[in-house]
Amino acid sequence: MEILFVLIPLSVVLVTFALWSFVWSVKNEQFDDLERQGWSILFDDKDPEEAANRNTPASSEQEEP
Amino acid sequence: MTVSASTTLCFHCQSPVPAAANIVVTIDSVQQRLCCTACLAAVQFIRELNLDSYYQYRDQCSTSATSGMSKARADAEVLTGVTQLQPDGQLRMSLLIPDIRCVACVWLLEQVLKREDGVSDVSINYATRRLKVTFGKTVQPSLIADRISSLGYTVKPDLPDAARDTYARTRRGMLIRLGVAGIGMMQVMMFALAAYLAGGEMEPAYEGLMRWSSLALTTPVVFYSAWPFHRAAWFALRNRSLVMDVPVSIAILSAWLLSFYNTLTQGHEVYYDTACMFTFFLLIGRYIELMSRYHFQHSQDLLDHLLPAYVYRVKQPATDAIMADEKVALSAVVRGDILRVRPGETIPADGVVEQGNSGVSEAAFTGEPLPQTKQPGSRVLAGALNHDGELLIKVRTSPEKFVIRQIARLYEQASLYRPRWSQLADRTASWFIGAVLIIASAAGLFWYNAGSTDYFVIALTVLVVACPCALSLATPVAYSVATTTLRRNGVVVKNGAFLERAAETRAVVFDKTGTLTEAALTVVDTFVLDHLSKTECLAIATALEEGSEHPIAIAFSEQHQISVTDPAIIPGCGVQGIINGDTWRIGRPDFATGNPQISHSEHPSASVCPSDMQGLWVLLSCNFHPVAWFLLQDKPREDAAAVITSLRRSNILTAVFTGDSSMSHADIVARFGVDHVVTNMMPDDKVDAVRALQAQMPVLMLGDGINDTAAMAAADTSLAVSPRDVFVQNSADATLLDSALTVLPRVLKFARKSRRIIRQNIAWSITYNFTVIPFALMGMVPPWLAALGMSLSSVLVVSNAGRLHRMGD
Prior knowledge:
heterodimer; A: mainly alpha; 4 helices; B: six-stranded antiparallel beta sheet; globular
């Protein structure tokens, strides 16, 4: 069971790391708007370049009645 | 191909399409109607970028509140003020887009801006409607602003706002405290579980390891996360008062101290997990409370952004020959400054018109969307929109005293209001907390003498269980949510008692003019002086007035095929135009006839009109020769009768107390269906009548004019309907900003709902506290359950109040 003398301090170090990353993300305003990200999966996020390259203004789904 | 004729809403901006506009766009083989060319341009722009899925996404969000198109653009100088150089050499611009309506708007803006060359990052906060865009130095800030406004959004600079920044900082700080407590708690519980499973048979070396590790993790929780409790408790004690934070702080600190002592001395028991849990669960309650306040602050903030950031000040001393402007920040404006306001701009300050004539729309204050004529000497309010003419205004008050700011403050006061029972709760709270401290120590002593090893835990549990946290949240949270909801629905509450009293209302008294009638003009009669027919006169008048947005112009809506050349709007007088070579004029009699000495009653041609008809007389003339008189009158609100029926259905007595006698008693009863009518009343009569009614039941008074204010003050509570004067607004408990009267039955229902929810909250929190204390005293409540139960009870109270986010129907 001597391994606990390594594992428990290690867990404390890991928790410290988790805390640090949490504080970092809060300070970078990642928690400021929680509503929008939930919606984002509903939008097909086309790659901007890909969309720009497709020069025909009417894409296939627009031609459907 | 189908034209969606049934809907008259613009496909792009969803505002009503004017009958005359005939702009269509074909999307997915369906023709959609648009309201203006600006919307057409926006749709074409969106389609060019292949982003028309915006319109589908938009349907997924429930967007009911949509504003019209933006024609206003932010200018380059203002944009430079909100653009900052980043350490990596990029520029970052902060903008406020007040008309972001749903998440689809966010998506559209992001897609469009990301495709701009040189733009490296776009981030939009949906909750605060703020946009941050990062771009290289080669990109012009105004180009980005133009892109956004070509989509139809209003672009405003996101100017630094101390109050909002403080809120954002507090919220972030609170979130970090909460996170530290949560993560710390999880790990400390893990260690506690190991010790619990070992059942006291753990080797001292391992036990010491666990304890020291727990200590390392608990210390930041106790001294960083729980700091707000300690701080508040300390301030309260120093002021010799007891607040809720005192027992909380004592519980957390003593749990930590005793555990620390036992860790050093290898004593019997540690309570690190208890300390962490108390902190974490209590912080959840605090965080939710803060969030509801933050939400409120945000709606405030949008109100203030109605005003422009920069104004054009006429350099003093201004001679009549040279009127040079200088551009200054609004905050730098002082009393006595002369400001230039161009057509289409927002009036930046409260003041008096020095020079110029123009129609000014004061929808923000009066709910009256039609522009009012302003001439030298007229008063204008900051936040109103200047329509057709250029005005020079003299500032009468310093910016912090503007009516618009006063409205904001009134609103703030009302939402901080606490009803009588809540004030009583606050006063008794310190006695209650004192009692809690004594009971907890007594319980600890008792169990210590009884030989229990749990005496300390029991004392701690009693401390936590007895905390009236939920009780203290019960009313203020419900009030702030309710006033915010009302504000969103166009009702600004000034006096917090409004909700309480509106819930009790059994009788509603209406004023007639402006309250039950629209205070919008319609043509009720035409008197022809010439050989033309009535219809022809109306058609000519409509053709002449076409280009004007004045209330009088809007009253004319006859079908016609007349083309007018050289139309000219003469602010404050009328309209002039040339039809088939003749000069036609419509407007004030002196203007129409070109004779400055003439008014309606004096005009020789007035004899054809019955003298007993009251209203606004407008004269149509051809080459300065009178052709026809039009009589314009106020028309009843369409919704008035429906509102009264709906009130009567919910057993509320309705009455009309009116000062004028233009409509007879029987007319009013027939038209609106009210129970009780008195006409021709003086303001004093109204007060007496309201008092008489009050003797039988609680009365709500609705009015719009200064003549109603006394009666409004006498009634139990009052609601101002699109008031034309700030004084009226100040004397009413609440103000209806939209002129839609239909909201009234809903407001009364909502008030009853708020009262019910507040009562539920109070009943729940009192029941909870008094039920659990005896069990805690008997040592039957484990500390984790105490902390959890108490937080859940706070969360329950707050989420119950959250039901007031919706107004209902």
